[in-house]
Amino acid sequence: MIFVEDKEIVIPGDILADEEYHSGRGTFKENDKVCSSLVGLVAIRDKKISVIPLQSKYIPKRGDVVIGEVTDIRFSMWNLDINSPYSGFLPASDVFGKEKRELNRTFDVGDVLFLRVVDVDEVKKVKLGLKGRGLGKFRGGILINITPTKVPRLIGKKGSMINMIKDQTHCEVIVGQNGVVWVKGEPSMERVAEKVINMIEDQAHTSGLTDRVRNMLAKLLGIEPEETEYELGEPEQVEESDELEISEEVEITEIIEISEETEELEESEPPEEKEESEEDEID
Q1: How far is CA 125 from CA 102, 145, 151, 162, in A?
Q2: At what angle do helices 209-221 and 160-169 cross, to 10 degrees?
Q3: 65, pLDDT greater than 50
Q4: Residues 42-53: b if buried by 16+ CB within 10 A, e if exposed
Q5: N or C terminus of the chain: which is more exposed, having fewer CB within 10 Å?
Q6: Sign of dihedral through CA atoms 231, 233, 236, 240?
Q7: What pLDDT, in 10s, does the model give residues 88-134?
Q8: Distance CA 106, CA 280 (A)
Q9: Phi, psi of 4 (to 5 degrees)
Q10: pTM above 0.70, yes or no
């Protein structure tokens, strides 16, 4: 027997179901009852019941693309805030190879970078890298922080939500899997995008969100709301994820449109034994 409904908000200790149901993420079993272990949304899939946290911290994983801010410069690396309990570091060798240069001439404290998580060790030491298309330093724009678990909701089915925002505001928008969003456009349009993104985060657990976003954009921009191709035939749902799992139909790197406003770096020749494709080199 189940005692809650799908997408219902629960708190720690709430009894969700009896022994007929399996305990998923965000839950525990006590006296043959499935109980919530956190504040979040109920997600029911067949006989498995989980709770998706409303608030959570970003836990880095290898391969993630993230947006980070340089917080410190050391002899051979930059330290970065990646919106996580764990700080990241970018080795100078990843940027310069074996060449010696002054680090602060390339990236200084306060610079915002678009990076990839290269490795995460057993103590959550996060190594970052700039190898990859479009990775580098952002120029201008604003940063918006959202709860990392809301990233799939902001992106939408096949990128529908984020594309609606980009098309209506004519802003460049890049979403890091760590919940940091970079927006670049006309200042007034940046503020419109910021308001809409914050609304999506606040209401990510509700249904009918796409219509409200469309109406909010229309109101802020002073235009008539129209049906768009983004939503035709696409049922709306809250993603079941507490680890930034993106829908199988789309990978986050596919819907992140690389901005021309990222400043790619010149790189010294790599060692002979290390071969890289032209696509992976930093220009």
Answers
A1: 24, 22, 23, 31
A2: 0
A3: yes
A4: bbbeeebbbbbb
A5: N
A6: negative
A7: 999 998 888 877 788 988 999 999 999 999 999 887 889 999 988 88
A8: 19
A9: -135, 170
A10: no
